[in-house]
Amino acid sequence: MTLNWDDPLATPISRVQSRPELDRNKSVTLITDEAVDQREAVEQVEKNKTKLSLEYPASDTHFVQSLTFEDSANDPDSGSQRRATHPTQEASSTQTPPATLRASLSARRREEGEQKPFTPMKPINSEDKRVINGLGDINQLAPFKYPWAWEFFINANKNHWTPLDINMAQDVHDYHHKLKPEERHVYENVLAYLTTSDILAMRNIGLAVMEKMTAPELQIYQARQVYEEALHTWTYQHCIETIGLDQSEIYNRYRVVPEINQKIQIANRRLNAVMRSDIDLRQPDDLQEFVLSYAFFSGIFEGCWFYNGFSPVFALQRRGLMKGTAEQLQYIMRDEVMHCSFGIRVVRQIMQEENVQLDPRDIRDMWDEAEAAEVAYSKFLLPTPILGYSQQDHHEQFRFIANRRARSLGMEEPFPGAKNALPWLDEQSNMRKEKNFFETRVTEYQTGGALKWE
Ligand SMILES: [Fe+2]
Ligand SMILES: [Fe+2]
């Protein structure tokens, strides 16, 4: 069987690219499709340059250039666009292949690089690094300025699992034969909320946050975090598939249930505010917006809403129900606690380095809005209590955890006097294992000690 090197999962192809290491007895010249494409493209460019300069007056160089640079490598309509903008290039419009732009640009970039003489650079001074707005070398990991970020990365790799490691057979039986309707309502909506949220969390860290970091040790952990968010999404999908829930219905709930949609909209608004292409973290307003957004995502979205979001399923687990799903969520929760801690630490570092002073009204608004959304969500989730868990428990636990996150952020407690309504939650989430099956995974992966939760 011969692999298709462009797509190893595709059906094997009959046209074989020679690979010398696979046939050492023959003298073979390795010619790849890419090399052929590039050679043909370069030849075509040279032909077109000649033809264009023959067909148009020398003074029309701007138009000739625009033909070269406005053409799109992937745009099948690029020829018709040229016909629409110039009355006389009918003949030439079919002579410039889509590969023109790719070859032309790559050749120009290579030439630009070759024209610069190599100059050895000064060694990196780690003290010059900054979390954002730094001018250091983003490609050089060490020496570290933020060794704690590297430690986060090392520790994150100790919490490795896949959803396939956990036996879900009993959950299928529990869901269909043991759960009461109100418990199924809780279970389904916890999954519906979490799966939409984790996609959003992945986009936030991967698209809005990571690109703004200017110290590679921070990006390394965030790259792991992006993967973990994707892994969490896989986990929810695995639960939804295994239980046999209607995928379309579950994934659409955030679009039709206002109490779920409200939380997603709040997060989307924060995300969109810092994904603007014109955001400039050297400007105080933009910088404050970014700090507030990262504080929201790490302290509330991950630190409160996710943390609190798992607890209804843990309440079922305590009664011996949906234990497979709960164990999946324990692994996710462990990741999320690290995401929360890391994000809060980065936020504090930025505030210190950039001398950021947040408006207390913005902070108060953030907590109040988050609480109102959580109250609405909990009323939808638990219109009637399930055994061992009520809407009031959920709300009070949110306030209690919010105080914990605020202290970590160096902020005042937003809800003084809030009680620990679920005193079993921290211990539950700390993954004490009672089953032999799970001990196996722990022995293999959990080489680190128990995480601290505060
Ligand atoms: Fe996640
Ligand atoms: Fe996360």
Automatic annotation (TrEMBL):
Broadest EC class assigned to this enzyme: oxidoreductase
Required cofactor(s): Fe cation
Enzyme Commission number(s) of this protein: 1.17.4.1
GO terms of biological process kind: deoxyribonucleotide biosynthetic process
Coiled-coil intervals: none
InterPro entries reported for this sequence: Ferritin-like_SF (IPR009078), RNR-like (IPR012348), RNR_small (IPR033909), RNR_small_fam (IPR000358)
Biased composition (Polar residues): 70-98
Positions of region (Disordered): 1-26, 70-126
CDD domains: RNRR2 (cd01049)
MF terms (GO), sorted A to Z: ribonucleoside-diphosphate reductase activity, thioredoxin disulfide as acceptor
Family: Belongs to the ribonucleoside diphosphate reductase small chain family.
Name of protein: ribonucleoside-diphosphate reductase
